[in-house]
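Re: the request from the purification team.
They wanted to know what the chain is likely to look like in 3D before they choose a buffer screen. I agreed to run a prediction and write the result into the notebook, where they can find it.
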Amino acid sequence: MKTAHVKRAFKYRFYPTDAQAAELSRTFGCVRKVYNLALAARTQAWTRQERVNYNQTSAMLTAWKKTEELAYLNDVSSVPLQQALRHLQTAFTKSRKSAEYTTSAFRFRDGKLTLAKMAEPLDIAWSRPLPEGASPSTVTVSQDAAGRWYVSLLCEDRSVQPLPATDAAVGVDVGLDHLLTLSTGEKISNPRHERPDRVRLAKAQRQLARKAKGDGANRAKARWKVAKVYARIVDRRRDHLHKLTTRLVRENQTIVIEDLAVRNMVKNGSLARAISDAAWSEFRSMLEYKAQWYGREVIAIDRWFPSSKLCSVCGTLRDKMPLSVREWTCDCGTTHDRDVNAAKNILAVGLTASVCGAGVRPQRSTPGGHSVMKQKPLRREP
């Protein structure tokens, strides 16, 4: 039986020449134009109760290129334009400044990557080696808000193999005072990545707010300063989450988490900044795809499960548990740390759902097809 190998995206920063930067900027602009035109065509067809598929939008692209108004679309590689149509077909959203190249639109030879319409290879900072013998199947070039250029190479990585099975399982309760509390009793502090740059960020935002909208160059420079501070914050946060999720996946066969509605939670003005900085959604995403890579299981229980109010020893459910209560004593005499107790309950209900299958339904799948399960909330008996 043939083993299916994991495909991983290896992302590197690169430093384009002026000519390469100009070519990529043109390509980004054309990709956005084609995507928006195709989206408009699909939307209009939908109002007429008609469907437009990829082949039809591809034919539209050919026609657009023949018009005087859109003839400039011929000046860039056609592959990123076609890829934009494919992503639209699958409702795939990408960065506003990105372009994807398939094998027919790039050359990777002797560790050098050259894109279509370019004479010279990209000057890539190879911060880590590609897997031995790797041959990229797609290359995605992007530019972030801080103006940094990145190239992502999708390769088959034969080194990623399932880890040896273990009986270890852990429940995870996310929070703000502590980023994670584990059912083992361990508490992982919240680094609050945004805090060290808060003064610098506020200053940059004030400077941007003072710039008139018509002041193009100065406003763009002020916007870049804000983006640069944000980029530092995001880099630190992502690095921390990668280390944390890798550790959890390596140490545990089963990881049980709560299915939190983060998008709704950030609407709370007083907590939005802290919740966004904690990056719970990104934590979960990393956890799920790494579990898929290494043969682990992630189980998500329903967000309404009363993990904080339920005694993990005797099962007594309290009527109320204000957020200000961090420690409480049950009628059975057990004194609980609120977060540790919640993590223990999260683990217990997740394992019960996994073994019994009662009240379990598929929640979602990761890109690798790994199903994550969702537990229906337990209701208190009258």
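For the purification team: The CA atoms of residues 282 and 289 lie 11 Å apart.
Please add any questions underneath this entry.
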